[in-house]
Design goal:
115 residues, five-stranded antiparallel sheet
């Protein structure tokens, strides 16, 4: 392949706007922001708000699946009381969700009860 062939097959971009050549990259960045970054930061804010709103007596589930009732709350740790009367000291960051009797009858993700 000669230099002449390479130059003949090269696109002639002399009259093309440089912004138009960057447009696909900009669009990928915008889509990435709205579908990946923004939902993650929203979820992190909700989780932080939930963990700050915990109070004594709340029934919770840890990340490891341990169910318990909050007995004591300190700055970074929580003492939970489990079914058998045992007490576990865990980090606040290990709390996954609040467990209430209303969640036992909840539909699995992606299913609607109003069919």
């Amino acid at each position: 392949m000669t230099i002449q062939n390479i130059l003949l097959f090269a696109p002639s971009g002399g009259d093309q706007n440089p912004i138009m050549s960057l447009l696909p990259l900009i669009l990928i960045g915008v889509v990435f922001y709205f579908f990946m970054i923004r939902p993650q930061t929203k979820k992190a804010k909700e989780t932080k708000k939930f963990r700050e709103s915990l109070k004594k007596g709340d029934k919770i589930v840890t990340i490891g699946g341990v169910h318990g009732k909050i007995a004591e709350i300190k700055e970074t740790t929580v003492v939970i009381e489990t079914e058998g009367g045992g007490r576990l000291k865990i980090e606040r960051s290990a709390i996954s969700m609040e467990y209430s009797t209303g969640q036992e009858n909840a539909a699995p993700l992606g299913q609607n009860l109003n069919k």
